Amino acid sequence: MSDFSTTDFATLLDEVIAAGNAREDVIRPSILLDLLNPALSGTPINPADAADYLFAETTRIVPPPLLAAEPPQIRLSADPADVARELGLTGNETVAALDRVRRAFAFSNHPDRVEERNRDIAIIRMQIANRMIDEAKAKRT
Asked: Under DSSP, is residue 66 helix (H, G, I), strand (E, B) or coil?
């Protein structure tokens, strides 16, 4: 607690204001809301005029730049070792557990659920996964 300062808020605020606007990336309000407060401006404001003022100010707002239009490409692997690793088969699963593994894998990897550009690989991945699960089920029965 050696860095604790007893400077009051007003003094701190004065120091910040005295330091100036060193940061240019700070978003500052563009609508002068104090003009709408009769206590500050000295003149009462008609609510309809205030609404027109605020609406006119909103037309000057510039939206932030858009994010990249193209999402990053996710390449699926058709390597049987990768598919086996994703399935997580240990050889001790019951037939019911293997059915759950197949459904879980299909839920995220079925060709109808992936992007169009990954459908060919998804078909191969599903064939590999189904073959592995069928072989594991054949050993259980």
From this structure: coil
Instruction: Please check whether residues 84 and 58 belong to one and the same domain.
Output: no
> Which domain range does residue 35 map to?
25-62
- Write down the pTM of the prediction: 0.47
109 near 125, Cβ under 8 Å?
yes
**Number of domain units in the chain:** 2
Question: Are 40 and 34 in contact, with CB atoms under 8 Å apart?
Answer: yes
Residue type, 9: F
Over the stretch 95-130, which tens digit does the pLDDT of each residue have? 999 999 999 999 988 888 888 888 899 999 999 999
Radius of gyration of the chain (CA): 32
Task: Indicate if 89 and 134 belong to the same structural domain.
Answer: yes
Based on the domain organization, do 114 and 87 belong to the same domain?
yes
What whole-number distance in Å separates Cα of residue 112 and Cα of residue 131? Answer: 19
Q: Work out the angle between the directed axes of helices 95-109 and 80-87 (0-180°, nearest 10).
A: 120
